[in-house]
Write a structure and sequence with these properties.
The protein has about 725 residues and is of the alpha/beta class.
Length: about 725
Amino acid sequence: MRAPADDLTARLRQAERFLDGAEPAAPRRWEATPPPRPAAPERTAGRPGGPASLAVGPAPERPQVRVDPDATRAWLTAVPRGATVDALRAALTAAGVHHGAREDALVEAADQAARAPVTVPMLVAEATPARPPAQPAAELAPPPHLPEPLPLDAVAARVAAFGEGEPTARRAWLVRPGEVVATVARDPGEAGVDVRGAMTLLPGALDPPPAPPAAGPGVALDADASLYRATTVGYAGLRAGRPTVLSPLVIDADGAWARLVALPLGHGPDAPDPADLRALLAAAGVTVGVSAPALTEAARVLAAGHARRVIELAQAEPPTPPIQPPARFAFDAAPRVGALRADGSLDFKDLALFPSVRAGERVASLEPGQPGRPGRTVRGEPIAPPPGASVELVAGRGVRREADAATGAVDLVAERPGVARVARRTRRRSGRAVERVEVAVEPLVRVPGNVDFATGHLEVLGTVWIGGDVRTGFRVRATGDVVIEGGVERGATVRAEGSVRVGRGVAGPDARLEAGGDLVVGFAQGARLRAGQDLVVARYLHDCDALAGRAAQVGRGARGRGVGVVGGRVGAGARVRLAAVGSPWAADTVVEAGADADLVEALGAAEAGAREAERLLTEVLVGLRLPSLDPGVVAARLRDDPDRRALVERGLRVARDLAARREAHQAAARRARADLGALAEEAVVEVVGPARGGVTVRVGAHRVRLRDDLIGVRFRHGRDRGGRPGVVFGMLDG
């Protein structure tokens, strides 16, 4: 056993260190080292009270007691023979042992002493150890009326699932800032008692008191470390052993919205108000797009606490995409199903697929775009605007590009007349769509098929090539030439400032072909043909109205039957050459030479105008009961009928206007005849084959009607035997 002096010295040194301010050492239990047993020839094992041996030597006179230096245990080191339990108790008391005596050990020692003195130490008393304080714990403090709350992990799962989840009768517990969520439960422990009856110091009594569990999110511990209070609105409970207030907010990962999930719940004295909810949003960093009406509605729903609701409290401010004005065109570049007529109906033939432009005309323009503006998430983070589409305006063939460096505007200007073609192509560049718009002006328009509902009417500044037909009712107009590989159907119109060539022919009434240059067709039936230069018909004209500015030729054979002109009218400014003309079964056929188309039409219009003015003048004079507009006759008429003087004067004004109009038309007709007479000096009509009786031949202003059939005859302007001007004819040479 360690010497008592050494033990005391150690204790004194420990006390001195404590008094000097050192940290107290952890208490330790002093274990007494039993003295070495004397050698004995015999040894007897003790009973469960502790080891004991019957010593061989002088017997003790009274019980000897030894107390451990730290008073944690007491030993009987010697017991005389025959010592009783009471004697042993008295010995303990005399030794200052007043606590922790072990009755069983005393009985054991007395039993052994009844046989022989006991000299082996026996443990007969132990101190009661101190019980250290327990670690402080947090105990929830829900409202008294609230059933068992849901586990907070279950609440978190339901909030994340927007309120969906396993139905349960338990309710979430809603708190607002400042409410008590939990209390700190402390166990101070118990002091020990040594065998002398003295209180022993608690383990760690001199250490700082243990800290309570840390507060979880949304909770703060009071300054006195006794209460856990909510710092925000949310669902209260324990999570991972810590008092926690779970936010009822769900915020989109991209910051597009913030929503409140209201679960069936119970709450304290007061439900959260809109200010609490706004503070909740602010604590989560949500400051943008907060809706005051939504906050009010959410507060109402939480106060009611009946059912699950998801309420959107905030929305992100979306970015503004870039604004790129589209390219603007001087023509209708978008396809359409037709044009609106004045009566409100739709003309499906007017598709405007071939828009025409003139040289120097601005055909397209593009204004600079405006950049996009960034938006903000509900947390105020910037949202980049979408890349947006951009437009590039590109000059194709026949077009030049003009850019304004100051404004960034771009114009495309046609360098030649023609048909504008727009080609669009969109590609991705640096993550955004770029539309490339190319505008070209083509002098030649190629239509591989028919002019029909697929193409609509053609209005072209330039030349047109058509691989098929011009179908019924469709229109082709061009400033250049028109080439039609097929035919022209009834009711169709073809006009060209240049020449027109039709590969097959013109079939059907009401078809109209007009050419500023030559007009070449295979055949024509019931059509109106006008050529500024030459008219060439390969086979025949039937019931057509055909005029050429210079020459007209119908039929390529000399005397073939079934070719030539049958019915209608054909004429030219200088020369007409026909394979044959007229038929016994056809209506009137008229052939004209020296008949400039414009002059002939002017003459016809003047004559028709004069006839109409004459007819109307006659009717007015009959109504006025006047034989003429002689002033004396008019004056007499006014005297005879003074009551109707106003009406008669009005009729006279109309009659004088009609007379003036008649004179004007007659004068225009005289001028046209004079001009046609001048042309007639060089005009000639040649019929290679038969010229049937009944055909009217007109040369200049003079005409003749054939009574008999003739073959191979030439008609021209001349004088008859009486010297009068007229149409004369003779046989063709050869």
